Amino acid sequence: MKAILAADKNWGIGYHNRLLVSIPSDMKFFRQTTTGKVVVMGRKTLESFPNGLPLKNRTNIVLTANPEYEVKDAIIVHSQEELLEELKKYDTDDIYVIGGESVYRMMLPYCDTALVTKIDRVFQADTYFPNLDEMDEWVMTEEGEEQTCFDLEFCFTKYERK
User: Fold this and answer.
1) What are φ and ψ of residue 46, in 5° steps?
2) How many whole angstroms separate alpha carbon 47 and alpha carbon 76?
3) Is 116 in contact with 6 (CB distance < 8 Å)?
4) How many CB atoms within 10 Å of residue 36?
């Protein structure tokens, strides 16, 4: 299982239920990487998408505590146990955790890879991904070329569990 995200220098990932910044090449990477795969998210992450609709051409699994919550074209689960049971139906290599903060924190122990677009700036953020650079069990195994989008510098990185 993998986590996929974009984070600023402080590992910030969002503010007021929105991404910190939209980088077209990061969006393209996310689309190419997750299309045809299983994406796991919390309800607020789903609701942050255009029209609050599940992502096309993917199996969308949404975790929410609300037993009444329903969304067309998504699988709804209500607990970590129910989520882990549902995920047994899929190849772990095809599962991507896509947020938000509480879902990342809950599922990180089950992930062996994190694909992190590192943005070389600090934004105002209210949601964060755990700082993998401070965790002994994670190591950065790939760091792409630095790229620029407008005045933002970023690079694609890959972390793997030791």
Assistant:
1) -55, -45
2) 13
3) yes
4) 10
The domain ranges of the chain are: 2-161
Q: How far out from the chain centre does Cα 153 lie?
A: 20
Instruction: Tell me the pairing of strands 12-15 and 18-19.
Output: antiparallel
Residue range 80-131, pLDDT digits in tens: 999 999 999 999 999 999 999 999 999 999 999 999 999 999 999 999 999 9
Structure tokens, 58:
């993917």
Q: Estimate to the nearest angstrom the gap between the alpha carbon of 141 and the chain centroid.
A: 18
The Cα–Cα gap between 12 and 130 comes to 9
Residues 24, 34, 99, 16: what is their CA dihedral angle, to the nearest 10 degrees? 30
**pLDDT one-digit tens code per residue, 12-36:** 999 999 999 999 999 999 999 999 9
Q: Is 29 exposed, middle or buried (0-12, 13-18, 19+ CB in 10 A)?
A: middle
| CATH top-level class of 2-161 | alpha beta
